[in-house]
Amino acid sequence: MLNLLKNGFVNFLRSRHWGVHFRRLPMFEQLAQTPVDAGISKAMGERLRNAAHAAEPALLESLNTSRQGLDDAQVQQARAQAGWNTISQDKPMSRTEHLWLCFRTPFNLLLTVLAAVSWLTGDTKATVVIGSMVALATGLRFWQEGRANKAAAGLQAMVSNTAAVLRRSAQDEEGRELDAPPSRLSALQAMRELPVRELVPGDIIQLAAGDMVPADCRLLAAKDLFLAQSAMTGESMPVEKFAQLPDDAQHNPVELRNLVFMGTNVVSGAGLAVVLSTGNQSYLGALAGKVSAMDRSPTAFQMGVNKVSWVLIRFMLVMVPLVLLINGLTKGDWTEALLFALSVAVGLTPEMLPMIVTATLAKGAVFLSRKQVIVKHLDAIQNFGAMDVLCTDKTGTLTEDRISVERHLDAWGDVSQHVLDMAYLNSYYQTGLKSLLDVAVLAHAERAQLVDAYAKVDEVPFDFVRRRMSVVVSDSGGAGKIITKGAVEEILQVSGSVQAAGGVLALDTGLRQRIVATAEALNAQGLRVVAVATRDTESGQSNFGVADEAGMVLCGFLAFVDPPKESAAPAIQALARHGVQTKVLTGDNAAVTAKVCQQVGITEQHIVLGGDIEQMDDQRLAQVVEEGNIFAKLSPAHKERIVRMLKANGHVVGFMGDGINDAAALRTADIGISVDTAVDVAKEAADIILLDKSLMVLDQGVQEGRRTFANMLKYIKMTASSNFGNVFSVLIASAFIPFLPMLPMQLLVQNLVYDFSQSAIPFDHVDPELLTQPQRWNPADVGRFMLFFGPISSVFDITTFVVMWKVFGANTPERQALFQSGWFVVGLLTQSLIVHMIRTMRIPFIQSRAAWPVSVMTLVVVAIGIYLPMGALAPYFKLEPLPGLYFVFLVAVLLAYMGLTQVMKKWYIRRYGWQ
């Protein structure tokens, strides 16, 4: 056991990272260097491009398949090579590993060593006290994080999905093996609904609206096929996919229009596709594998606690040997000096720090759970408070991830109800699956009376050659009208005139250019523009075709947008008020992103594109990430690199995203934030998962994180300064007094009672001014605070020594119990009362009052401190009752100590500030 502790402590000293695994962090450099393929290998990118450009017969032959699908033997052969169609997730941490991770903190390891030494030297009381503190801190953290991880795992449980797969039988009805031409086999082939995990390369699958694409595939046939790829690329609009071979050498496989990828979903239309790769060999699997392989770099919280811990440990490593040497040399009893030095080591160590940290973080986690937030890693609470830059994806985080009508305008750019009415009739009366744009038009306004006024006559369906569709309606009088909606350039091709306020104007070259400029201006605002045109039809005509889409009158435009969340703008404003910058990192285009950012209140915009980042070295990028606040057309590698560079610049960085393209950045950030609707890989990489759509919880989390930090810092400053003062007093007393100023057992009891009183700190109030700016761990400030306020207590300790020696005659070894009792009470009460002085930069008890648990615990400690030497337990602790005059002196010392501390505190704040 001791060897295990020794090895663990040695390993810790080497790594000096608290709360992270021992393995070193791969900095994802290879991914950062291949941004064009969004983090996939060059071999995979080449394989996908080859599959996209290959002729269908050659492609099917290479996959050992055909249009009729695979038979059972081929499936088994393919599965033996490719395995099951599942993506490896991070292996869940075992309970033993989790418990070790919760235990492995600097002070837990140090206290365990001290407990082991105490046990070896026969001091069982110290062993029990120290061991209890370690067990309590470790157990509380283990329990709280276990609950959070269990809740997160529940969110990530996936529903068993199926896919429509074309499989052919290898036998006829009588059980004989078949050797028949494809025409015979096609009669025996069957479309089956199979679990997604059973797919193999070479399978022929059918895609329909609402389907999740189950693997990386090449399209063999497609009709009106639109896919949502926002989780993969960040594009807010659905992407049109075709079965035709690409006519260019597109470098990025994701942009090849005849490839579809695992994790995207079909918005509309239908398709037939052949599976190219499954599971970990897919694009999604490759990127997920890279993210899972990443180990978390130490966060700002972990590094800050480590630095503060080592400041205090270094003080202990200097002071304890001095106590041992002085007492050993002056008293001559080295065994007793060793026990006393060991007690001093325990007293100097803020042994409640692990429990205080865990308790305050757990309290923050409980607070956020009431706000519908799951905290997977407790450290994320304090990182919330320290965060000064929030990087966020756009689609699905700042926006609703749905399309809506933003404007309905005439050709001159003025609002037009007529355009909306015509578009509504067009969308309402078209048959088949309605596109997202049609759904947005129908959801924009209720037009029941308008529909009742018209009857459908015919329609000309949409196709991707003309990129428009038409419906024909007639009113109650029998007058017919053809209404056409589609891409602006396609509508202009079939229009001969334009509707104006004074009638209809011929569409000449100048007018056409003006209309195109109006549409382009809308595009520049990040809006997707669709044109609407109409034409009266001849009486009695009932059949219409593409040829009838001619001589149209352009009515105007519909402009669509992915609307921002209602809570986005107030959340960004609230974060700004609390000193947190917001930077948008998205894969979408700059125009759309700029429009959304303007809507959420980011009006001063400095836009940086992924292509520009590609050309920058780290030195230049370090400057650009400070200047830019909107980063568009980014790959996952770009996002991760930006976050990493911001951290290198000294920022505490949060990242909020929900797609696979966000996972690497989520893992790299100090605090990764995702939502319950995010892809599994993103939720796995996140520290915090939002269950509520409102983003205001971000600002609430920031404030709770700062409360948590403030209370942790209170404990560290209070304990470090008072403990240092006590040890400084011990050094002075040991040099001049012929006996120990306090017995080891008394020192441990005093320390235990004081630490018990500090258990209420997590529930204390925090002054509002401490919540306005991000807060960081500052080891230098903690050390300075300890050296400044510690000796103040020593002034009154030395005063107590003189009074006990001169006034009460406690100046011989025979009367050392009285001396020790007097200092025991003064030391415990001054430590407890000074909490109220240091917990606030204001005037205590008047301008700032402690929470009732803190006040109650202070009174309890005062009562215990006076009872121990005066009550029945005094002989057990080798204390003795104090004379009545002592308590007059005690009140004077406490008042003088509090007054001097307040005066020095004001001077300290003016000189160094107050964190």
From TrEMBL:
Transmembrane regions listed in the UniProt entry: 99-120, 126-143, 259-277, 308-326, 338-362, 724-743, 785-805, 817-838, 850-870, 882-900
EC number: 7.2.2.14
Keyword Transmembrane helix included in the entry's annotation: yes
Gene3D superfamilies reported for this sequence: Calcium-transporting ATPase, cytoplasmic domain N, Calcium-transporting ATPase, cytoplasmic transduction domain A, Calcium-transporting ATPase, transmembrane domain, HAD superfamily/HAD-like
One Pfam family matching this protein: E1-E2_ATPase
Keywords tagged on the record: ATP-binding, Cell inner membrane, Cell membrane, Magnesium, Membrane, Nucleotide-binding, Phosphoprotein, Translocase, Transmembrane, Transmembrane helix
UniProt-annotated location(s): Cell inner membrane
Gene Ontology MF annotations: ATP binding; ATP hydrolysis activity; P-type magnesium transporter activity
One GO CC term on file: plasma membrane
Domain spans labelled Cation-transporting P-type ATPase N-terminal: 51-123
Record has Translocase as a keyword: yes
Listed InterPro entries: ATPase_P-typ_cation-transptr_C, ATPase_P-typ_cation-transptr_N, ATPase_P-typ_cyto_dom_N, ATPase_P-typ_P_site, ATPase_P-typ_TM_dom_sf, ATPase_P-typ_transduc_dom_A_sf, ATPase_P-type_domA, HAD-like_sf
Membership in a protein family: Belongs to the cation transport ATPase (P-type) (TC 3.A.3) family. Type IIIB subfamily.
Purpose: Mediates magnesium influx to the cytosol.
PANTHER family attached to this UniProt entry: CALCIUM-TRANSPORTING ATPASE
Name of the protein in question: Magnesium-transporting ATPase, P-type 1
